[in-house]
């Protein structure tokens, strides 16, 4: 018979077995479950990584596109093979004046542009010949007209708020680009007194074209065009040094800007005669072999044959004026000055698709332009002058961004003031526009351009307090 001690030991062993066995079983199950969970987590992590990679690739591809819609299934390239190009863009100007002007407010202007080009050399074998047309749709309200009541619009998109046929012309290029002829529905400032630097601002004193012209004669500018022809000769466009010259003749039709005709009045009703313009310019250090700082210098003149009514109530013919334009690179980033432009491009000191170094090289630039009315007894102004600085790629890692500063002065003629005084109206003297702008290039096809503007003597007649304008310009290329 077993002793009590043996029975006690056996009983303890049984109890210990009953207690430990479930625990060991639970531990085994826990280890097995943990391994299973870890396997699942690894699987899920691997699947998430696989899913995340296409998303990252898609984001990178969107950022690298030249257009929001990309090649759109290859149709851009297919069209280009036949010499066809279609571009669609949307721009917006937002602006408010928290200080000054006649009243405070906030407005928005929109513009949609559609361009269609045909390289007839590719399409039909007609060497050097091309066709171009464009459409514009604009809408919105001007802050200048509705609240500030100043003279020069603080939003450059204002004008012809409707749908409109804009350009419609043929251009023939000859002698390897040294000579060209353009004719059809065109505007003077598609070619004359032109610089891409003007687009780095939102105020109409700068953006588009120098606004002084329009206070000195019945000129046309986007989206308004007229019948005209242009001859250009000398150094070709693009990366070439040297002189160039151009002469244009345009119909002066007072009805062309009429919103109701939508750009489809094709009559030759030139009730203000003809407009003749000429420009002689020199491009310095634009060649890819040049090592100096690039610049562009131009002098020009214009004449309208009339007839016109003078500010004193008479009539006259043959009014005109002079203008100048200067743009000069002052400082280049990164590469020593003696390095040729071609090597600068290889060193990635450039961006974008433009053919001119003035639109590519990072650094500091200066520009200035002015118009002088030689017939100040006709029209409103006798002098307009503007100047500015811009820096391309100022901030590290932001090579495509542009910081710009501009100032403009519009001076009204004494004959215009005398006419206003005789009519019992406020006499206009001068108005000054100031702008500080920063273009943030989000992608190749999209930018945001916040800006701060100052308007001194709004309305030019000492009627309203100086205005502060906070604005935003944006554009998307589809």
UniProtKB/TrEMBL annotation:
Task: Show the InterPro entries listed in the entry.
Answer: Carb-sel_porin_OprB, OprB_Porin, OprB_sf
Q: Name one GO cellular component term.
A: membrane
Q: Which domain of life is it from?
A: Bacteria
Q: Which GO terms describe its biological process?
A: carbohydrate transport
Q: Does the keyword Signal apply?
A: yes
Gene Ontology terms, MF aspect = porin activity
* Entry-linked Pfam families: OprB
Q: Which UniProt keywords apply?
A: Signal
Signal peptide positions (record): 1-26
Q: Which family does it belong to?
A: Belongs to the OprB family.
Q: Which PANTHER family match?
A: PORIN B
What name does the UniProt record give this protein?
Carbohydrate porin
**Source organism per UniProt:** Ruficoccus amylovorans
């Amino acid at each position: 018979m077993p002793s009590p001690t043996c029975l006690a030991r056996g009983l303890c062993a049984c109890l210990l077995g009953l207690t430990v066995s479930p625990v060991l079983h639970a531990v085994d199950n826990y280890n097995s479950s943990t391994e299973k969970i870890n396997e699942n987590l690894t699987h899920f992590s691997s699947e998430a990584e696989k899913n995340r990679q296409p998303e990252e690739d898609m984001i990178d591809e969107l950022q690298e596109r030249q257009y929001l819609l990309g090649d759109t299934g290859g149709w851009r390239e297919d069209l280009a093979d036949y010499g066809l190009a279609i571009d669609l863009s949307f721009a917006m100007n937002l602006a408010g004046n928290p200080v000054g002007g006649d009243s405070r407010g906030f407005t928005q202007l929109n513009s949609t542009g559609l361009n269609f080009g045909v390289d007839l050399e590719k399409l039909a074998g007609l060497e050097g010949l091309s066709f171009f047309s464009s459409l514009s749709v604009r809408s919105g309200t001007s802050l200048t007209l509705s609240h500030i009541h100043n003279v020069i619009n603080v939003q450059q998109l204002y004008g012809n708020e409707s749908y409109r046929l804009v350009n419609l012309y043929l251009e023939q290029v000859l002698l390897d680009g040294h000579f060209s002829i353009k004719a059809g529905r065109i505007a003077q400032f598609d070619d004359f007194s032109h610089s891409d630097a003007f687009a780095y601002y939102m105020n109409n004193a700068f953006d588009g074209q120098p606004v002084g012209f329009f206070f000195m004669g019945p000129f046309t500018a986007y989206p308004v065009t007229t019948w005209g022809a242009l001859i250009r000769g000398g150094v070709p466009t693009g990366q070439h040094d040297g002189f160039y010259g151009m002469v244009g003749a345009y119909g002066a039709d007072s009805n062309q800007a009429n919103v109701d005709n939508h750009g489809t009045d094709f009559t030759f009703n030139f009730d203000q005669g003809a407009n003749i313009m000429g420009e002689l310019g020199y491009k310095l250090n634009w060649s890819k072999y040049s090592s100096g700082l690039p610049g562009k210098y131009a002098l020009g003149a214009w004449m309208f044959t009339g007839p016109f009514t003078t500010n004193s109530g008479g009539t006259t013919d043959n009014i005109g004026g002079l203008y100048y334009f200067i743009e000069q690179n002052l400082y280049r980033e990164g590469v020593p000055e003696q390095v040729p432009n071609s090597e600068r491009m290889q060193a990635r000191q450039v961006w974008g698709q433009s053919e001119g170094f003035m639109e590519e090289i990072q650094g500091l630039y200066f520009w200035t332009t002015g118009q002088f009315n030689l017939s100040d007894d006709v029209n409103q102004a006798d002098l307009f002058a503007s100047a500015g600085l811009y820096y391309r790629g100022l901030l590290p890692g932001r090579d495509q961004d542009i910081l710009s500063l501009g100032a403009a002065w519009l001076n009204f003629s004494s004959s215009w003031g005398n006419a206003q005084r005789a009519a019992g109206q406020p006499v206009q003297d001068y108005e000054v526009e100031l702008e500080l702008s920063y273009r943030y290039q989000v992608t190749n096809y999209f930018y945001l351009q916040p800006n701060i503007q100052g308007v001194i003597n709004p309305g030019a007649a000492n009627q309203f307090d100086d205005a502060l304008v906070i604005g935003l310009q944006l554009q998307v290329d589809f």
